[in-house]
Amino acid sequence: MARRRIDPVEGRAAVQAWRDAEDPSALSRSVRGTAVRFSLEELAALSPGRSVEVRVPPFGVTQCIQGPDHTRGTPPNVIETDPFTWMALCLGTLTWDDALASGAVAASGLRADLSERLPLF
């Protein structure tokens, strides 16, 4: 089970604030960070495992998806994107395929595919 650091009520409120914002970049850094970190926790809770590392700098990183565990060094399956792209994926306003095609998401490795796990909310 994924370890929770964000209170679910606070996390859901931050995600809702992001969803409601006309311009998410106008949200406070704290709200943006909480929304991203909570969504990463949700992904890890819904898809437990340690075979894929999802990075959303500067706010967070998580490991998820069952398969061979990664313990040290650079993992073989990595997904990296910015907070705005990540939340668009989580909220369903951007598809996985469109994000990959535009270059907004970097995904390497055979298991680095979140198309069946997104959107989260």
Order of helices and strands: HHEEEHHE
What value does the Rg take, in angstroms?
A: 14 Å
Output the CATH topology. Nonspecific Lipid-transfer Protein, Chain A
Low-confidence stretches: none
Instruction: Indicate how many domains the architecture comprises.
Output: 1
Named at the architecture level, the CATH assignment is 2-Layer Sandwich
Please give the share of residues in helix: 25-40%
Return the average pLDDT rounded to an integer: 93
Strand order of the biggest β-sheet: 2-1-3-4
User: What class do helices, strands and sheet pairing give?
Assistant: alpha+beta
β-strand amount: 5-15%
The coarse overall form would be globular
Could you name the CATH class? Alpha Beta
Distance between the termini: 19 Å
Q: Give a quick account of the main beta sheet: strands, pairing sense, barrel closure.
A: 4 strands, mixed
Helix count, DSSP H or I runs of 4 or more residues? 4
State the total count of DSSP E strands.
4
InterPro entries: SCP_3
Domain Bacterial SCP orthologue: 29-120
Protein name: Sterol carrier family protein
Helices and strands in order, then pairings?
Layout lengths: L7 H13 L8 H18 L5 E5 L3 E5 L13 E4 L1 H9 L4 H7 L2 E4 L13
Parallel strand pairs: 1-3
Antiparallel strand pairs: 1-2, 3-4
Helix pairs in contact: 1-2, 2-3
